[in-house]
Specification:
The structure holds 3 protein chains of 3 kinds. Chain B is an alpha/beta fold. Chain B has 10 helices and 10 strands. Chain B folds into 2 domains: 188 residues, P-loop containing nucleotide triphosphate hydrolases (Rossmann fold, 3-Layer(aba) Sandwich); 65 residues, no CATH class. In chain B, the strands form 2 sheets. Chain B has a 6-stranded mixed β-sheet, with helices on both faces. Chain B has a 4-stranded antiparallel β-sheet with strand order 2-1-4-5, covered by helices on one side. Chain C is mostly helical. The longest helix of chain C is centred in the N-terminal third of the chain and has 36 residues. Classes of the chains: A alpha/beta, B alpha/beta, C mainly alpha. Chains in contact: A-C, B-C. At the A-C interface, helix 1, helix 7, helix 8, helix 9 and helix 10 of A face helix 1, helix 4, helix 9, helix 10 and helix 11 of C. Bound molecules: adenosine-5'-triphosphate and magnesium ion.
Amino acid sequence: MRRRPLLGAIALATAVTLTAAACGSDSDGGSSADGKKTITIGFQGVLSGDNQQLGLNALYGVRTAIAEVNADTSSPFQLKLVESDDGGSPDQGPTAAQKLIDDSKVVAVVGPMFSGATKASEPAYTQAGLLSVSPSATNPALTTLGFKTFYRVIAPDTVQGKAAADYVATVLQAKKVYSLDDKSEYGTGLSGALEPELKAKGVDVTHDGINPTKDYTSEATKIIAAAPDVLYYSGYYAELALLSKALKDKGFTGKIASGDGSLDPQYVAQAGAAAAEGTYLTCPCGDANTDPKAASFVASFKKVNKDAKPGTYSGEAYDATLALADVFKKLGTDVSRESVAGAFGSVNFQGITKTVAFESNGEVKGSNVFVYQVKNGAIAVLGNTADLIKS
Amino acid sequence: MLLTLSDVEVAYGAVTALRGVSLEIAEGEIVTLLGANGAGKTTTLRTISGLLRPRSGEVRLDGRPLSSIPAHGLVGAGVSHVPEGRRVFPSMSVRENLLMGAYHDRRHARADLERVVALFPRLAERIGQAGGTLSGGEQQMLAIGRALMSRPRLILLDEPSMGLAPMVVQTIFQVIAEINREGVAVLLVEQNAASALRIAGRGYVLETGRVVLADTAAGLLADDRVRQAYLGEDVADREDEPAPTRGGAAAGPAHGTAIRADSA
Amino acid sequence: MGFLDQFWQLTIDGLMVGSLYAVIALGYTLVYGVLQLINFAHSEVFMLGSFGGLFAARGLLPDDGSVPGGLASVGLVAVGLGAGAICGGLAAFTLERVAYRPLRRRSAPRLAYLISAIGASLFAVNLAGKEFGRQNVSLPDLFHNGTVFSFFGADVSTQSLVIFAVAVAMLIGLDRLVAGTRLGQGIRAVAQDADTAVLMGVNVERIIIVTFVIGGLLAGAGGFLYAMTFNASYSMGFVPGVKAFTAAVLGGIGNVRGAMLGGLLLGLVESYGGYLFQASYKDVIAFLVLVAILMIRPSGLLGERLGRAA
Ligand SMILES: Nc1ncnc2c1ncn2[C@@H]1O[C@H](COP(=O)(O)OP(=O)(O)OP(=O)(O)O)[C@@H](O)[C@H]1O
Ligand SMILES: [Mg+2]
């Protein structure tokens, strides 16, 4: 067969492409000059690929916190950052984690970010005894898998899914909901929390899953044929954008809703304002940009990050970093992987998104779920679900 | 001289195929190139049409060095090559194949198409049929017809009779003679030396890349080596046979005069 | 929501995407025809064309994010198509000059072309990632009026209609070009027998470069159409590229009408399959089709001949 080599060639091309994509970027955090002790922390997150913006949001939050600590003359130490890109994928997670683990100076990590990558990375962190604080991994199961050094400063999707279901059933008064997830760790976790609560409220639920792709035309046809009042997509913004476009194109008349993975201005940019208009987005996170208490954070974020505005997970990453700094301060001279991992569980730090304090399983205590909506081409906060449902 | 090769050497990588070939063709004559398999006949034709470039030596067309003309420009300069194995475009119709002959200059395409079809009535019957589905003889007619479409002054024919039935071979040779009568010079490579020498005025014999004999057709027909190697005759029989009259009649007076005119 | 209820909708969706696969597939098939070379970097020509078209059209959109609609939108599509085609054509021209021609001059072995193609591909992908960012870039829906007509219960939007119409116009245009012009004669002659084409006075080098450029123009314009619906990103080329390649093999690589038929068929099979099984399997279906053709009918549905276009 003459054309067999072509297949081999495709395989080869794929392999080369994937390998190339796997090569992340390094960046040097710079080192302090003024004799203060330097403490190095790591960041693991999605710094490339379709959903890179979420990674940048968090990374910029971390950088803001570090800049504040380093600018503070009373701080007994300087912070230095080592970045590691996992592309948001479970495949690349362990490699990205290993890179930070192998750097013996790293005493704690902010990240990983996506649930799948987190699940894949945590065994390595647990084994290395290296603390990791995720600003964004919300899959409920993550705190039940025996990861000893895993904490997160965001509520799990059980909290978000339940609140989102209550909102969809009560405020949007949906009778029929099409629950579509992206088959990722995050997506299935969120849809798994959403659906039972919807059913408990007497809503008719259709479950479906689709791996991330570009062409959502037949999926849109399927959804429209099912004629739901609300489509709830558990996945990330790049795909929701394409799905929204396809639905708009085919004249879908129901409402579109999604979770924190889609809460980013890039969603509107990529779907186009017309297709994104009216979409509801839930998140166990407040909006720093409109929260008066976070005004100084927003200002310092813009200063550090060339005028970028905080986005989804920016505040959480910032809080996680400052909570780490708080622990370092208390530990004084004895800052090691072991001491940090031992002390972090009892931290009590007033952050801008919430008070950072943990249950014994690493779950953050007390959290609010907010609802946002795309209005006139911008994402606006509607309020706290608990308040919205009451009123 | 229409075409001259002087001391041409051609190599395929490390394999030298032509080792100093010199030959010439005048306007309007038929010259045949004989030689065993692998002697370098096809190589000579491909060098003339620019598909191969000599390592040394020179090819001149109308006294102009061929190296100054790109291979695809040669047909415009009046040289048309009917390659070994016919090489008709298999998925093009007979008509499209013929029109390819007029690719470089389409001004006379229509009139020439009629002329060629008149020359080969078989092609007219199959004008819409794909070239690849024609019989070997039809393909050869098509290949020659295609070459004529370019209104050549010199036509290079590489073994036009190969693999064809005797009847068809006869037709092909008649057509070659007719083309020549219209003033087109012909360089004819043939295994069928008897037929070739019958219509040719002069001939060359190639052996392993060298010209070993060059003479008039009559001279070659009379040559022992030619008779033995290319006419398949037992040289011992030669005395029993009367002089080479066999070829004379078919060749016709026109070629007889051509030879004389040439050698004069 | 049975399959039959949705049959026409799925057919229309499949034809829309399929017509784009066909447009891209022509680039593979034309180049294969004249060079017997699979231009694996063609997918990046498509990607660069998408960006070119998208940026040109976005540049003309009003700053307030509104969309003109109507004839002005048709004009925007024309600008995007033109810019996409030019970028695609330029990319293909450069690719041929930089990645392939030097190899041809040296009569390099087949494998060298493949490696060169992969290298050029990686270079283009990473360059685009660096220059245009790693986010998806989109163009807002250019037409407001949504569904323009219903066909057996299937809704067709203006945008899909425009995409399909333009793609089909390009397919017909190319078919006419190959079958009915002197350039097409030259392309087919080189494809069928390059040496003999030279004897007919065909400038093979020129035909090769023109063939690359035609493939690039089509891929670039097709890229813009694709990005109107599916957004553009630096990594967008690979999947549609493989699908278009599949379409070309399905129809018979080297065969112009085969590529068109293959593209439309693949679009349909994907659309039906994505609905019947799971939308996630859409991409898998293309590969299954590829493997199946290679096993059952290696020379494709219409066979491997560029000349068949006539
Ligand atoms: N592409 C090639 N690469 C290497 N050697 C070649 C090539 N083509 C021809 N040759 C060699 O060059 C010599 C002359 O070949 P050529 O084809 O000119 O012979 P010919 O006289 O036409 O023979 P035939 O009667 O069999 O057609 C032969 O020894 C042949 O093996
Ligand atoms: Mg020969």
